[in-house]
Amino acid sequence: MFTIELTLKHTAMPLSVQKKEQEAAEALYGSIVNEVRSGSGQWLEMTCDQLPNKKVTVLSSEVAAVQIFEKAGTATASGRPPGFFALTADQ
């Protein structure tokens, strides 16, 4: 399962959808990146393969970051889920 995760401007909580096939995930990732680059402010509607009734629609001009990763398990080797950054409380 491949996850496409979006971070929106002024929003701490990321949005994500899952795709079963790598080609479908790469195509969705590419279309999001192209819309963000164009700056057209179009609506992006995404559907999830894991939860068929899940749909996410966002305005492309509000996308701050997008990432794609393969969901091989619940955590990475470091013990944390994948993401853009990690906050730690090490002192």
Quick take:
It contains 1 helix and 5 strands, in the order E-E-H-E-E-E.
Task: Describe the protein's architecture and organization.
It is a single chain. This protein has 91 residues and is α+β, with helices and mostly antiparallel strands. It is built from one helix and five strands. It has one domain (2-70). 19% of the residues lie in helices and 33% in strands. It has a three-stranded antiparallel sheet with strand order 2-1-5, covered by helices on one side. Strand 3 and strand 4 form a beta hairpin. The longest helix has 17 residues, at 22-38. It is globular.
Keywords:
91 residues, alpha+beta, two-stranded antiparallel ribbon, three-stranded antiparallel beta sheet, 19% helix, 1 helix
